[in-house]
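[Discussion] Sanity-checking designs against the backbone

I'm trying to build intuition for which residues belong where. Below is a C-alpha coordinate string of 145 positions. I'd appreciate it if someone posts a full sequence so I can compare it with mine line by line.
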Protein backbone atom coordinates (compact mmCIF):
# COMPACT_ATOMS: atom_id res chain seq x y z
CA UNK A 1 0.00 0.00 0.00
CA UNK A 2 1.43 3.32 -1.03
CA UNK A 3 0.97 6.97 -1.73
CA UNK A 4 3.51 8.75 -3.96
CA UNK A 5 4.11 11.41 -6.61
CA UNK A 6 5.29 10.30 -10.04
CA UNK A 7 8.72 11.66 -10.99
CA UNK A 8 7.68 13.21 -14.31
CA UNK A 9 4.53 14.69 -12.81
CA UNK A 10 6.19 16.41 -9.85
CA UNK A 11 8.98 17.66 -12.13
CA UNK A 12 6.46 19.32 -14.45
CA UNK A 13 4.63 20.87 -11.47
CA UNK A 14 7.88 22.23 -10.00
CA UNK A 15 9.02 23.63 -13.37
CA UNK A 16 5.66 25.35 -13.83
CA UNK A 17 4.61 23.31 -16.87
CA UNK A 18 1.55 22.12 -14.92
CA UNK A 19 -0.26 24.74 -12.84
CA UNK A 20 -2.26 22.85 -10.22
CA UNK A 21 -4.49 25.88 -9.66
CA UNK A 22 -5.72 26.08 -13.27
CA UNK A 23 -5.03 22.64 -14.79
CA UNK A 24 -7.64 20.02 -15.68
CA UNK A 25 -6.85 17.55 -12.88
CA UNK A 26 -8.74 14.24 -12.83
CA UNK A 27 -8.81 11.02 -10.87
CA UNK A 28 -9.07 7.43 -12.14
CA UNK A 29 -9.95 4.24 -10.25
CA UNK A 30 -7.48 1.35 -10.56
CA UNK A 31 -8.15 -2.36 -10.13
CA UNK A 32 -5.89 -5.26 -9.08
CA UNK A 33 -3.97 -5.78 -12.35
CA UNK A 34 -2.66 -2.21 -12.44
CA UNK A 35 1.05 -1.57 -12.95
CA UNK A 36 0.70 2.07 -11.88
CA UNK A 37 2.14 1.13 -8.48
CA UNK A 38 5.46 -0.08 -9.93
CA UNK A 39 6.15 2.24 -12.88
CA UNK A 40 7.28 5.45 -11.22
CA UNK A 41 8.85 7.38 -14.09
CA UNK A 42 6.34 7.13 -16.92
CA UNK A 43 5.82 10.36 -18.86
CA UNK A 44 2.13 9.86 -19.66
CA UNK A 45 -0.84 7.55 -19.01
CA UNK A 46 -0.34 5.63 -22.26
CA UNK A 47 3.13 4.58 -21.05
CA UNK A 48 1.77 2.40 -18.23
CA UNK A 49 1.88 -1.30 -19.02
CA UNK A 50 -1.62 -1.69 -17.56
CA UNK A 51 -3.75 0.92 -15.83
CA UNK A 52 -6.57 -1.63 -15.30
CA UNK A 53 -9.47 0.78 -14.91
CA UNK A 54 -13.04 -0.48 -14.39
CA UNK A 55 -14.92 -1.15 -17.62
CA UNK A 56 -18.53 -1.34 -16.45
CA UNK A 57 -21.23 1.19 -17.22
CA UNK A 58 -21.28 4.04 -14.75
CA UNK A 59 -17.48 4.44 -14.53
CA UNK A 60 -15.87 7.70 -15.57
CA UNK A 61 -12.65 9.45 -14.69
CA UNK A 62 -13.73 12.25 -12.38
CA UNK A 63 -12.75 15.90 -12.64
CA UNK A 64 -11.24 17.64 -9.62
CA UNK A 65 -11.51 21.09 -11.22
CA UNK A 66 -14.39 22.19 -8.97
CA UNK A 67 -12.59 21.20 -5.76
CA UNK A 68 -11.52 24.03 -3.49
CA UNK A 69 -8.29 24.84 -1.69
CA UNK A 70 -8.40 27.23 1.24
CA UNK A 71 -5.13 28.99 1.98
CA UNK A 72 -4.41 30.19 5.51
CA UNK A 73 -1.53 32.28 6.80
CA UNK A 74 -1.35 30.72 10.27
CA UNK A 75 0.70 28.61 10.27
CA UNK A 76 2.55 29.95 7.25
CA UNK A 77 2.16 28.00 3.99
CA UNK A 78 -0.72 25.86 5.24
CA UNK A 79 -3.19 24.58 2.68
CA UNK A 80 -6.46 22.98 3.67
CA UNK A 81 -8.00 20.89 0.94
CA UNK A 82 -11.75 20.65 1.37
CA UNK A 83 -13.93 18.99 -1.19
CA UNK A 84 -17.25 17.40 -1.92
CA UNK A 85 -17.20 13.68 -2.72
CA UNK A 86 -16.04 12.92 -6.26
CA UNK A 87 -18.03 10.09 -7.87
CA UNK A 88 -15.89 7.63 -9.83
CA UNK A 89 -18.47 4.87 -10.21
CA UNK A 90 -22.21 5.45 -10.25
CA UNK A 91 -24.67 2.53 -10.24
CA UNK A 92 -21.95 0.22 -11.40
CA UNK A 93 -23.95 -2.61 -12.89
CA UNK A 94 -23.03 -6.27 -12.55
CA UNK A 95 -20.11 -6.43 -14.98
CA UNK A 96 -16.74 -4.80 -15.46
CA UNK A 97 -16.10 -4.11 -11.78
CA UNK A 98 -14.30 -5.92 -9.06
CA UNK A 99 -11.98 -4.78 -6.35
CA UNK A 100 -10.77 -1.19 -6.75
CA UNK A 101 -7.25 -1.09 -5.32
CA UNK A 102 -6.20 2.55 -5.69
CA UNK A 103 -6.74 5.81 -7.46
CA UNK A 104 -4.54 7.84 -9.77
CA UNK A 105 -4.61 11.65 -9.92
CA UNK A 106 -3.44 13.03 -13.26
CA UNK A 107 -3.20 16.14 -15.43
CA UNK A 108 -5.70 15.66 -18.26
CA UNK A 109 -4.91 16.89 -21.76
CA UNK A 110 -7.72 14.97 -23.45
CA UNK A 111 -5.61 12.00 -24.53
CA UNK A 112 -3.69 9.35 -22.57
CA UNK A 113 -0.63 9.87 -24.80
CA UNK A 114 -0.05 13.33 -23.31
CA UNK A 115 -1.90 13.21 -19.94
CA UNK A 116 0.60 13.21 -17.05
CA UNK A 117 0.29 10.99 -13.94
CA UNK A 118 0.72 12.97 -10.71
CA UNK A 119 -0.22 10.94 -7.61
CA UNK A 120 -0.92 7.27 -6.85
CA UNK A 121 -2.79 6.36 -3.65
CA UNK A 122 -3.65 2.94 -2.28
CA UNK A 123 -4.06 4.01 1.35
CA UNK A 124 -5.02 0.92 3.39
CA UNK A 125 -7.86 2.77 5.14
CA UNK A 126 -9.53 3.32 1.77
CA UNK A 127 -8.66 0.27 -0.34
CA UNK A 128 -9.42 -2.33 -1.50
CA UNK A 129 -13.07 -1.56 -2.16
CA UNK A 130 -15.35 -4.19 -3.69
CA UNK A 131 -17.94 -2.70 -6.05
CA UNK A 132 -21.31 -4.43 -6.31
CA UNK A 133 -24.14 -3.98 -8.82
CA UNK A 134 -25.77 -0.98 -7.12
CA UNK A 135 -22.75 0.61 -5.42
CA UNK A 136 -21.29 4.03 -5.98
CA UNK A 137 -17.60 4.75 -5.40
CA UNK A 138 -16.99 8.25 -4.09
CA UNK A 139 -13.66 9.73 -3.00
CA UNK A 140 -13.45 12.83 -0.83
CA UNK A 141 -10.17 14.72 -0.92
CA UNK A 142 -9.49 16.40 2.41
CA UNK A 143 -6.53 17.11 4.62
CA UNK A 144 -3.72 19.53 5.26
CA UNK A 145 -0.35 19.84 3.58
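Best answer:
Here's mine. Compare freely.
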Amino acid sequence: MARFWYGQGITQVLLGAINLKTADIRVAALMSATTCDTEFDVANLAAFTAMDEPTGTGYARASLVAQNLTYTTVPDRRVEAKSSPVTLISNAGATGFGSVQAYLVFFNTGTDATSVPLVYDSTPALFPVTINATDNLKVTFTGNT
